[in-house]
Amino acid sequence: MSSNFANQARAVVQGDQAGRDVIKTTTIIQARETTQVSLWIKRLEKQITEENRDAANRFVESLKYFVDQRDDVEIVGLKAKIEASSFNISYRTAISRKEEFAKLMLRYQEFSSAQELFAYFLSIIHDVFEEKVCPKISEITYDELQQIIDEHIIDKIFSEIGEGSESLFINRNHVRGMIYWLADKCYVRWH
Q1: What is the count of structural domains for the chain?
Q2: Would the CA dihedral through 51, 52, 58, 59 be positive or negative?
Q3: Does residue 171 belong to any structural domain of this protein?
Q4: Using H for helix, E for strand and C for coil, what is the string for the chain?
Q5: pLDDT tens profile 48-94
Q6: ABC-three component systems C-terminal domain: from which residue to which, for each copy (predicted)?
Q7: For residue 118, is it within any domain?
Q8: Of 129, 117, 131, 123, whose CA–CA distance to 165 is shortest?
């Protein structure tokens, strides 16, 4: 008959001493890489706390690019773009999401860091449409378009946001609203 009894009265050890099992728990905390987005979020939180409305009555240069409507396009306006599209996009949903984003942008318009964040996210959307959607627009299905939007726009933006912020809440509807907002301004097309 075996016993689990061990006499360690005269043992000299360097390290752990146990009568049976030694269980160690190691916690690894990975520091999140500091990104431009995380810096803008921290700056926004500070600006809101200090009520530093440094961009009142003006747009930062990077956002100004997207605020002005392009004039070198043949189809103008969100409704006309949706109607010209071969995709089954609900105008009511599109306009609702666009308005959600416009209200979000309006709420933070006086903070330069928020404007920089919005401009950066809009530039991601613009780039994806220019590089991945427009060249293939006549070949891709609606589901393929949605997959591009999910993987290259929504997932990327939320990956960049990381833990997020108590001061700025962005959801998927806001990101889709950014797409429709850019379409209305003629920076995104799917026709």
Answers
A1: 1
A2: negative
A3: yes
A4: CCCCCCCCCCCCCCCCCCCCCCCCCCCCCCCCCCCHHHHHHHHHHHHHHCCCCCCCCCCCHHHHHHHCCCCCCCCCCHHHHHHHCCCCCCHHHHHHHHHHHHHHHHHCCCCHHHHHHHHHHHHHHHHHHHHHHHHHCCCCCHHHHHHHHHHHHHHHHHHHHCCCCCCCCCCHHHHHHHHHHHHHCCCCCCC
A5: 888 888 887 788 888 988 988 777 778 888 999 999 888 889 999 99
A6: 77-190
A7: yes
A8: 117
Structure tokens at 77: 């306006």
Look at the block and give the residue holding tokens 């990381």: 162
∠ CA 65-125-191, rounded to 5°: 95
Identify whether 12 is part of a domain: no
Could you give the angle at which helices 36-49 and 112-128 cross, rounded to 10 degrees? 150
| Domain assignment present for 32 | no
| pLDDT confidence of residue 86 | 83
Average pLDDT rounded to a whole number, residues 95-115 = 95
- Domain ranges, residue 53: 37-184
Find out whether 56 and 111 touch, Cβ atoms under 8 Å.
Answer: no
Structural contact between residues 132 and 190, judged by C-beta atoms closer than 8 angstroms: no
